[in-house]
Specification:
The chain is α/β, with parallel strands linked by helices. The protein is built from 12 helices and 12 strands. Strands 3-2-1-4-5-6-10 form a 7-stranded parallel beta sheet, sandwiched between helices. Helix 4 links the parallel strand 4 and strand 5. It is globular, with a radius of gyration of 19 Å. The mean pLDDT is 95.
């Protein structure tokens, strides 16, 4: 199968690309630089010059593929309105390249979009376009493209990790090292779902090989790890104090991470595992945090 993927050289996208190539698929990744193109070449992928802002390039890439995976995202939280606009236009351009066919578009979102009640597990079948989650633009655009007749499905991600990087936790580790304390808010009972990078990559491959329009999948291996447990693992790894902060103090301490520090992002993958034969088998989040300090 010929697959076009955005974000192909990113932390998650590169693992997906490698997984697809190992399975015998022909993968072309969007590459904004010669360095990115060369990186794709090292694992047997082809490159398609361009960027998310180059909409005609996205359309052309989608037109030449059997399946499209949209994995790129601008993780700058300094201008959410501009990020949402870029994301919307990119998804619509990919949809335009697939319009009039049954060729699938797999869009990447986050599990927080599936949370109906704060403190409860997010589920695959829940979707509220009125949410304040920064990724709302992703699923609104995906739904709009799906309504136009394109074969769209969504893979939602939790904290994706290996022994090198652990989603938002990597930023928490740097912050803790800089400030000399590992902090959490109040009792730290809010939880974040997680999955190992290689398990996530395998889920994408399974979705590619058996696409079903209109479904959402949760790449969740662990439904929730408390922020207290995460902060404690960081405290031990860095050998610094473990500190509870009030909500007010957390705003100053966490900076751009403050909006996530109190957020509960636990999630279920029960429906995903019913729909597709996905069985996570790699190390859990706390184990990978521990391993990250031993490198």
């Amino acid at each position: 199968m010929k697959i076009f993927i955005t974000g192909a050289t990113g932390f998650i996208g590169f693992a997906i690309t490698a997984e697809l190539i190992r399975a015998g698929h022909q993968v072309t990744g969007l590459a904004r630089s010669d360095k990115s193109a060369q990186l794709l070449t090292t694992i047997g992928a082809e490159s398609h010059p361009g960027a998310l802002e180059n909409l005609s390039g996205l359309i052309d890439g989608a037109k030449s593929a059997d399946t499209v995976i949209h994995c790129a995202y601008d993780h700058s939280f300094s201008n959410l309105e501009e990020t949402a606009k870029k994301e919307t236009q990119a998804i619509e351009a990919l949809g335009q390249g697939l319009h009039g066919s049954s060729r699938p578009l797999i869009v990447t979102s986050v599990v927080g979009m599936g949370c109906a009640v704060p403190g409860k597990r997010a589920t695959e079948d829940f979707y509220d376009p009125r949410t304040h989650n920064p990724r709302r633009s992703t699923e609104i655009a995906a739904a709009r493209v799906g309504d136009s007749g394109v074969n769209v499905s969504v893979v939602r991600l939790p904290q994706v990790h290996n022994e090198i990087k652990q989603g938002f936790i990597t930023a928490l580790i740097k912050l803790a090292a800089d400030k000399g304390i590992s902090a959490y808010v109040a009792e730290g009972t809010n939880q974040w779902a997680a999955a190992h990078l290689l398990d996530v990559a395998r889920l994408y491959r399974l979705v590619v090989e058996k696409p079903r329009a209109g479904l959402r999948y949760h790449a969740v291996a662990e439904e929730g790890i408390s922020l207290y447990s995460i902060a404690k693992a960081i405290s031990v790894g860095l050998n610094i104090p473990l500190v509870s902060l009030s909500s007010e103090a957390a705003k100053a301490h966490f900076g751009w991470l403050a909006m996530f520090a109190e957020m509960d992002m636990r999630a279920s993958s029960a429906l995903t595992r019913q729909r597709i034969p996905w069985h996570p088998s790699h190390d859990g989040l706390l184990k990978d945090i521990e391993q990250s300090f031993l490198r």
